[in-house]
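User: I'm curious what two different proteins look like when written out as structure tokens. Can you demonstrate?

Assistant: Sure. I'll show them one after the other, since each token string lines up with its own sequence. Here's the first protein:
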Amino acid sequence: MADRLSKDTLEETARLITSLMGLHFPQERLPDLERGLVSASKEFGVADIEAFILWLKSTPMTKERIEIMASHLTVGETYFFREKDTLGAVETRILPEIIAARQQGEKRLRIWSAGCSTGEEPYTIAIILHRLISDIQDWNITILATDINPASLKKARSGVYGEWSFRNAPDGIKAGYFKRAANGGYEIVPFIKKMVTFEYLNLADDIYPSLLSNTNAMDIIFCRNVLMYFRPDLSKKAVTAFYNCLMEKGFLLVSPCEALASITTLFVMENHHDATLYRKDSAAGAGSNPQANARPALSADRFNLKGVPPFAPPVSQTASKPVGAGSNQQANSRPALTVGAGSKPALKEDNYDVALRMFNNGRFKEAAEQLEEELRHLPDGRSAILLARIHANAGALDDALKWCEKAVAIDRLDPYCHYLRATILLEEGRLQDAVEDLRRALYLDHGFVLAHFVLGSLFLKLGDERASAKSLKNALEILSSFSPDAIIPESEGITAGRLGEIISSMTKMS
């Protein structure tokens, strides 16, 4: 590029990028925008930067183009043990507190690296945990790592890095946790690699917390050098969603340049030496705001809370069109649950609706108390399912499974009961049991697209790429009968088009 772009052109382009992608470039970051545009223009094969900007104005931004642009306009560079002050607080304060509190009880720990780039951050977390927990083999540890860039995720899954990724690593890390790769780089050892799960997720568009994406009941969320790219409303939306993803007393960790206090008052700010930490404390923070915990409203039929008929033969014996197919909203709902012969009437609609509203507003404890009181007297499948979801979102997996079992006992032919139990078993690390429940769900409803999707993801985690490809192909075939903007049943609001994009991204990463 011979000449620099004018300030007016950059400001106009910044507004265009914000409208297209939700990325925010204030005055001080316009030079970063210009460098990113120059880099992106080369990948798109447009040599002249001004011609590239004109092309952006006139060309529809597909998901693939957004991914390419995002890879150039956001800083993907990272390295092991980045931001030592924050990691020091994690290693010497946050994790020891959690480990000590759970050492004699349920040894369970859930951490999310949101915007993980090429994987150095989540692998750093895994190494820290391995150094801290002497009986780590006895723990159920989830390290979820997500990013919008499939190319970065593919590199992260390979676990191979060059010298530059170790520029801030403590002595002994490379020798203790890496081995020489064929290309001359360094490959992370298998027992650390297996601790991390990499998934595609768009923080600006996707829905979380969600059992589907495994973003619920987190103890710690790392989201460093990500929020600074979002326009203010998207930053606030993401931070509120992170709050709902966290367990009570859980931590959100952002980079020092991302002042969370200017975005939200939900979290309680704490200092540890030179690190600023943000803790979820409902009593001190969001507890005074009844809307602070609000999550996207759930309809009764979205999670199959209305159940299925008392007898539902396999789909192969019924209509061939998958449940929920197409844009007809009535096609997306299941019939109301009929409790078995001789049982008591279903829970009163108004009582159930009260509990559902409590759940939608993040008042999980009150919703659970309301439903448990009623279920002492009445067998009701949809209430048992909602109770299972409430406990799963709160990280109480034993209670979630208990209510799942009650729902199955009420109606063993409800495919959603088996699907929900599979998602809970996944959180417990019982992968083979989850496979069996997903197969039961698909036997009862072969058109259950989410069951195909989760089964494909699970096979990928188990290393069976052939079975994964088959399940994901089945999911895509079923999705072809939906309109792109149709909400997938039991998906917590994901559209058919969005799920198709996620599946396509998964195939790029494998």
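Here's a second, unrelated protein for contrast:
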Amino acid sequence: MAQINPVRQIRNRKTRFNWRVSNVLRRTVVKWRELRAKISGRGFYCPTLAGLDDYNLTVNSDLTVSCNCQDYDGSGHLGDLRKNTFEEVFFGPVAQRFRDEMQRGKIPIPTCVRCSMLRLEKNAAPPVPRLPYRGMLIENTVVCNVDCVGCAREGAAAIRTQRQMSLKDLAEIADLAARLKMERIFYLNLGEPFLSPTICQELPLLREKNPNAYIRVSTNGVLLNTDAKREAALNLTDIQFSVHGISDAMLEIYMKRSSFEKAYAAMRDMVKFRDARGSKMPLLEWKYLLFNWNDNPKTIERAVAMAKEIGVDIISFWPTQNPFYGVSWRYKLGLMKNIGQPCWKGHEIILRPENLPPNYK
């Protein structure tokens, strides 16, 4: 009989507890926001479902379409591109039901309350939905080499009918993005993009079909570890390396099975590989989620120094509320305002401004 790893058992219990608490909080916030809408006599509005958002709308690895980037349980599925066209999905019965419920002051799925796009309508009626053009997410895989406490990816993987997008599927989705004239493509979602065995073919194909799009990947960095992958990555506009600390011990609290040394080396080697070719693309960013175990001023100071040492273009610091017990109270209390400049992420320090693309944001 296989032995059960007690450490993994504790981690799983901790993760499940975090998500149980998060679910209770979401349901509570749903009732509160619906009550506010009822009292004010207003409905809700979602720019994503109006076709006016540059994020959230996601084509999953099995070609289902979700209205949000955190659709762990499938409640945000709008349809399936294996069965219907994108237009039929986007203007279909599920998406329309979501729009109608929001206009009546109801929140269609609890995930909405975690989304920055949910907002109360003003006096004017919401715009008539149009085909999206500003941006979309493409999930090439729902498999990951790292297990993050704040990610319920395993739930999403369990409902995917296909965990890895084939090259044929990707070509069709890349054609869709081109037909919609997508300005921004986020090649990311609930898996690790560089875990795909065909990543070296995927990125050139995506760029070939969308030559003018801003294409961003988010990666934990560990598997961006060969020249072949680095060559493929030159097709990207932007790479965000999610590395939340400055040591293995610090990363392990949130990013189980990650490696700081490997991720840090991946950032360093990608900088060298790009710079050796005299290129400014892709933009290379160290994405640092803030928790109460990695936000000490000396730790932040060291992270900035390490970012400078390897020559990344940006280091950014992102506050988060998941897991609920990891909230950075230093950030919440306004004690970190001196870190770089404020932005939609939280704060960022631009280390090599000459490498920023004109449409960077």
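A detail about the second structure: The CA atoms of residues 7 and 77 lie 34 Å apart.
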